[in-house]
Amino acid sequence: MASITASVYTSHVPAIGAALDLGKTGEAYWQPLFKGYEFSKQWMKDNTPDVIFLVYNDHATAFSLEMIPTFAIGTAAEFQPADEGWGPRPVPKVIGHPELASHIAQSVIQQDFDLTIVNRMDVDHGLTVPLSLMCGQPEAWPCPVIPFAVNVVQYPVPSGRRCYMLGKAIRRAIESFDRPLKVQIWGTGGMSHQLQGPRAGLINREFDNAFLDQLIADPETLAAKPHIDYVREAGSEGIELVMWLIARGAMSDKAPTLRHRFYHVPASNTAVGHLILENNT
After folding, report:
1. What is the pLDDT of residues 121-162, one digit of tens each?
2. Which CATH number applies to 3-278?
């Protein structure tokens, strides 16, 4: 049977992608950030999975305000990098895993979670920046990727509790797949940031690090955190952190092994957080 071996959590700041694509990683501003992912890139080479299930949010590229699914799973054979207004990022196309994605959709929907099945979409920086941070700049990504888009753009957005329980449903779905695949689940977005209004540029180190502590050690309690706490403490875009609870919920009920933790500010006007957790089964 398939199994989830690890979970990866990282911010997906678009400026990080631009720094990579424009060769700015060696500049003094960006060096500390990319240094925090050196361990991660080696870990990824040493622990390359068969499939990555990548939880992210679309930024009005695949979906517009005319139609916003709460949860959408990409079931296509491939996904092109999106043009977000300045041309697509110069990164490889994403190869999907239609067989596993369709199985997950079937299983999760039968567990009473409504998913939108997407057979064609482009993927934006929410998905490609995490791949770049973990895999560098290869000619092809090291394994297939299943995109899983969550609405954290247009309110109402799903609760932390629903995301956490959805992660458990995804775990059950993957573990019922009848091929011995090693799967990693990634949660992306956040950490604290606000892009508009009087609080634009908000960064809350204390909240961010408390969130990381609790995500590792007490995700059940963290899942109960109400939306207003995210918005008040982490800014309007800090709500993206509920997506990390999907990845955490998909992990084994046993305490995970923390392989790497990194936190840095600022990257553009955003706090960057990063974790690698390995399953103990």
Report:
1. 999 999 999 999 999 999 999 999 999 999 999 999 999 999
2. 3.40.830.10
pLDDT tens-digit readout, 27-61:
999 999 999 999 999 999 999 999 999 999 999 99
Mode of pairing for the β-strands spanning 270-278 and 71-74 = unpaired
Global confidence as pTM: 0.97
CB 138 within 8 A of CB 45: no
Beta strands in 115-234 (DSSP E): 116-118, 145-150, 182-188
208 in Cβ contact with 271 (< 8 Å): yes
Catalytic site residue from 12, 103, 193, 264: 193
Characterize 80-104 residue by residue with b for buried, 16 or more Cβ atoms within 10 angstroms of its Cβ, and e for exposed.
ebbebeeeebebbebebbeebbebb
- Residue 248's nearest CA partner among 4, 1, 2 is 4
No. of helices (H) and no. of strands (E), the chain: 10, 10
Cα distance from N-terminal residue to C-terminal residue, the chain: 14
Q: Pick the closest to residue 91 from 82, 100, 102 (CA basis).
A: 82
Question: Would residue 125 show up in a list of annotated catalytic residues for this protein?
Answer: yes
What are the beta bridge partners of residue 274?
10, 262
Give the residues across from 277 on adjacent strands: 7, 258
Q: 12, 97, 103, 125: which one is catalytic?
A: 125
